[in-house]
């Protein structure tokens, strides 16, 4: 099959491009992150993480698995899904190369594409663990084989490459693989599904890139087949594979968290493209229920280690929180699709929470280590993992340079590399700022008028956001600003120094304020959000943290950390009658070196308890209490200064 080369997307590329919706996403050429919190992390991805991932994949033989001429080999290395990790790395490279093009990165993508093309069978099938001499037959293990899952990540890599630099051989490989999937699993094929959803959103996005209806039809067909228990019984149950209940009949997310969230993202894509508002409504209901009853304070999803799964309603143990980084990325993927479809700013709030408290937490300061799981309570000090050591398994533990299952690294990299595309969106005659950070926005309204904005802020350390109009061509248009739910009614707004209303009719029920006028270049909008520390109390039905309290500051969840267990955090009791004290002052030099090191303090006591042979009695045990001041740091900063214990939820006095 020959694919005609297509020019790069004039927007610079966007991960999701729905044909309809309340908001139009802007691309990498339209929104550029210029400094601050996320700029530092984008730099890490480009300067360290991508090369780190490639070195490990070469060393472990994952890239080498593709070195053949159409036939798989029996001695390939790595788990059955390692192909997908290489594809996710290429997707991240494509977004990074679109954001900041370099000839070297472009050549690297082309070299890896050549490997994929060489390993692809004549009929388009591409997977290095099945179908070759000495290997299991194709699609002989749909529960665990991950063949369609891997194909999905291949398609998403091709979408990123096509949208950032134009169609090339990677799109050819991807379309041949997608055609094979459609021919094998189409209406006349077996009524089965892959154990790990992912092919669904990938096919939908490939359909948007290529205008091939059959890809969207196949995604919809996989969704209809899901939930009829076509996969064999398993110890974790059919819910682990999201194959227990048809997607329209479910009322919440359950089973393996990443699987459920990827499937929901694909369902939103299909619903939007086919105008299926009932399907869209079903996913909204399921997500809303999950947010209200099955989500951690950090935005993390998944409370069960054994099967990386959602627990029952309100079963959210801090010290057993799984909250996989990949689930955080998948939550952003889903919330972004719902935000574009509905325009509801609450989904931008979800994205913000997950970005600052899951995604930012995972990645190490050097860009070469990461958390797989994100616990909310570390009882024993974390270990230091050597730079050349691979962590076996895929559970909790310290940040490590590599895991036997290293899906989270590529997922984090592809999200952060493309992050500017999640910062803003547009309607016909409005530009909406959805995430706050130093950025430049330049786009065209629906009638073709060019508009531009420059955003400067110290967010999330400070709540001041200054927006300057840099380009306008006459006529009225609007700038929409998200008002985070945590800000309550405390936000203030000025336009060219004149106070403006930020409540009532100016906001409505959508969580944003819109400034409309005939702007001139140089006009300034200043939004002030009340960023100060606040106590957060859990729903009393969450048994694991009853009678505990957490502290948040703006979008940031805070935690107590004890390096080398110098302080027994299980003895701390917080006095909620005394409000938290805001960030301690640091010198300008210290702040310039690391602007994220400032702290919050709370009034607390250390409770002495006598050693006992039996931890139960007729009355609550308690000893002398010593007043103290407990220092809290941003949760995303924990575990970076050496072995440490940590907890977010702290018992009250």
Which short descriptors sum up this protein?
653 residues, Glycosyltransferase, nine-stranded antiparallel sheet, 23 strands, 17% strand
Task: Summarize, please.
The chain is an alpha+beta fold. The protein has 13 helices and 23 strands. It is 32% helix and 17% strand.
What does this structure look like?
About 30% of the residues lie in helices and about 15% in strands. It is α+β, with helices and mostly antiparallel strands and about 650 residues long. Strands 3, 16, 17, 18, 19, 20, 21, 22 and 23 form a nine-stranded antiparallel β-sheet that branches. A seven-stranded antiparallel β-sheet has the order 2-8-9-10-15-12-13, with no helix packed on it. Strands 1-6-7-11-14 form a five-stranded mixed β-sheet, with no helix packed on it.
Give the fraction of residues assigned to helices. 25-40%
The top level CATH class name of the largest domain: Mainly Alpha
Kindly report the average pLDDT value.
Answer: 93
> Under the CATH scheme, which architecture of the largest domain would be assigned?
Alpha/alpha barrel
């Amino acid at each position: 099959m020959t694919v005609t080369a297509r020019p790069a997307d004039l927007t610079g590329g966007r991960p999701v491009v729905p044909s309809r919706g309340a908001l139009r996403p802007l691309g990498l050429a339209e929104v550029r992150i210029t400094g601050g919190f996320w700029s530092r992390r984008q730099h890490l991805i480009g300067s360290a993480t991508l090369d780190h991932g490639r070195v490990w994949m070469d060393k472990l033989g994952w890239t080498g698995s593709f070195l053949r001429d159409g036939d798989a080999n029996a001695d390939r290395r790595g788990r059955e899904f390692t192909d997908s990790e290489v594809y996710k790395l290429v997707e991240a490279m494509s977004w990074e190369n679109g954001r900041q093009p370099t000839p070297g990165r472009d050549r690297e993508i082309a070299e890896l594409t050549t490997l994929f093309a060489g390993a692809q069978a004549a009929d388009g099938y591409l997977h290095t663990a099945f179908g070759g001499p000495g290997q299991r037959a194709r699609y002989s293990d749909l529960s665990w084989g991950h063949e369609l899952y891997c194909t999905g990540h291949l398609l998403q890599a091709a979408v990123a490459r096509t949208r950032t630099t134009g169609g090339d051989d990677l799109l050819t490989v991807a379309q041949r693989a997608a055609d094979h999937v459609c021919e094998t699993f189409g209406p006349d094929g077996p009524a089965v599904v892959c154990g790990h959803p992912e092919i669904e959103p990938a096919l939908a996005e490939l359909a948007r890139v290529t205008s091939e209806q059959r890809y969207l039809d196949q995604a919809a067909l996989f969704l209809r087949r899901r939930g009829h228990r076509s996969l064999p019984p398993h110890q974790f149950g059919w819910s682990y594979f999201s194959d227990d209940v048809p997607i329209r009949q479910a009322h919440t997310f359950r089973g393996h968290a990443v699987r459920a969230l990827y499937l929901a993202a694909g369902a939103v894509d299909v619903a939007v493209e086919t105008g299926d508002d009932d399907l869209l409504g079903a996913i909204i209901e399921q997500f809303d229920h999950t947010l209200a009853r099955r989500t951690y304070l950090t935005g993390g999803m998944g409370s069960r280690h054994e099967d990386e799964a959602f627990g029952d309603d309100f079963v959210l143990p801090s010290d057993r929180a799984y909250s996989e980084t990949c689930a955080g990325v998948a939550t952003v993927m889903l919330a972004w699709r719902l935000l574009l479809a509905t325009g509801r700013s609450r989904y931008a709030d979800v994205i913000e929470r997950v970005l600052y408290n899951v995604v930012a937490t995972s990645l190490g300061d050097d860009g070469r280590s990461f958390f797989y799981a994100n616990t909310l309570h570390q009882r024993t000090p974390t270990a230091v993992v050597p730079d050349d050591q691979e962590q076996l398994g895929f559970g909790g533990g310290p940040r490590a340079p590599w895991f036997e299952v290293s899906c989270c690294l590529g997922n984090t990299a592809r999200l952060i590399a493309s992050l500017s595309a999640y910062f803003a969106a547009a309607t016909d005659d409005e530009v909406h700022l959805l995430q706050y950070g130093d950025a430049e926005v330049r786009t065209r309204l629906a009638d073709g008028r060019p508009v531009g904005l420059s955003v400067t802020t110290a967010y999330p350390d400070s709540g001041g956001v200054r927006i300057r109009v840099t380009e306008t061509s006459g006529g009225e248009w609007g700038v929409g600003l998200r008002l985070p739910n945590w800000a309550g009614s405390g936000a203030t707004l000025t336009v060219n120094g004149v106070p403006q209303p930020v409540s009532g009719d100016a906001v409505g029920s959508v969580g944003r304020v819109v400034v409309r006028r005939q702007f001139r270049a140089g006009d300034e909008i200043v939004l002030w959000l009340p960023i100060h520390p606040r106590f957060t109390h859990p729903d009393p039905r969450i048994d694991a943290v009853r009678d505990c309290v957490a502290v948040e500051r703006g979008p940031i969840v805070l935690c107590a950390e004890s390096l080398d267990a110098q302080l027994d955090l299980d003895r701390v009791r917080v006095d909620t009658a005394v409000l938290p004290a805001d960030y301690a002052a640091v010198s300008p030099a210290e702040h310039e070196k690391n602007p994220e090191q400032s702290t919050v303090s709370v009034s607390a006591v250390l409770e002495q308890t006598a050693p006992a042979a039996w931890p139960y009695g007729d009355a609550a045990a308690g000893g002398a209490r010593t007043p103290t001041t407990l220092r809290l740091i941003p949760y995303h900063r924990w575990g970076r200064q050496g072995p440490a214990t940590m907890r977010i939820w702290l018992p009250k006095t």
